Amino acid sequence: MDREREEKMILKHDPIPLYRTIFYLVFLLGSLYLALIVFLGAK
Predict the structure, then answer these.
(1) What are phi and psi of 5, to 5 degrees?
(2) pTM summary value
(3) pLDDT in tens, the chain (43 residues)
């Protein structure tokens, strides 16, 4: 078997737009929560 001639296997998937929106929302809420803890804890 000639390993140099083998092609790379590429796994493809169709993105689900709702998951991206949920990810950004959770990331934003987590960042705001951490900022709130830092600012209130600094007083």
Answers:
(1) -95, -5
(2) 0.59
(3) 555 566 778 888 887 889 999 999 999 999 999 999 999 987 6
Read off the tokens for 43: 């007083």
Q: Helix/strand/coil (H, E, C) string of 6-43? A: CCCCCCCCCCCHHHHHHHHHHHHHHHHHHHHHHHHHCC
Q: Which residues of 3-42 are buried (b: 16+ CB within 10 A; e: fewer)?
A: eeeeeeeeeeeeeeeeeeeeeeeeeeeeeeeeeeeeeeee
